[in-house]
Design goal:
Blueprint: E1 24-27, H1 30-36, E2 46-49, H2 58-62, E3 82-85, H3 89-102, E4 106-108, H4 113-120, E5 130-134, H5 142-153, E6 158-163, H6 168-177, E7 181-184, H7 185-209
Helix pairs in contact: 1-3, 3-7
Length: about 210
Amino acid sequence: MQQGSNMAGSGPGKRKIKKGPRAFVGPMDHSYRAANGNIEDGPPSTIQISGNGGGYYPDAHAQHTSHTAAPAPVRENAPTRIFCFIEDLFFLAKIQETARKLGVKVEFAKGDKESIARIIESPEGERPALLVFDLNNPSVKPMTLIPKFKSKFKKTVSIIGFLHHLQGDLKLKAIEAGCDTVMPRSAFSQSLPNLLRRYGVEEEEEYSQQPA
């Protein structure tokens, strides 16, 4: 009896084991990217997809883990100290989620006259502490707004701009316009929690320590 090559290694008491389909590793969906800060400048990542079409979503799983911290409370009448002139959906979701966890109020402002006037004319005790600009957001005209805010608030307000890599000319223009700091998108994403704590949480702690 001729033995086929596919029977090699078989013998009495041994059964040939068929391997099932391997799990498919697909690309990230946008919501996962936004929630975890994996933006275009960051390294590629994946989500493990099971054979039956179901997926493993860390956000849902994290709700059942003991180390998940509850969102910090936000004082209802707390003034907004951080304004972001950003329309990128990935950054919007990331900033909103990070601010929610830290208990910091963040407002996403438009470039319209009403929004600008409201920020510039804010009362002394409710002035912003940080203004963030996506320097590649043409709808708000960063190079026009930044000098206006810098002229009004001087050094009492920090202005941060972020851009893509290899945009040296835009970086120089932003600094000349009045940006205190200009950084790549990836660096801004990594620094976001610290920035929100510095300009949002500390403001709230200072307020809470004042005598009634």
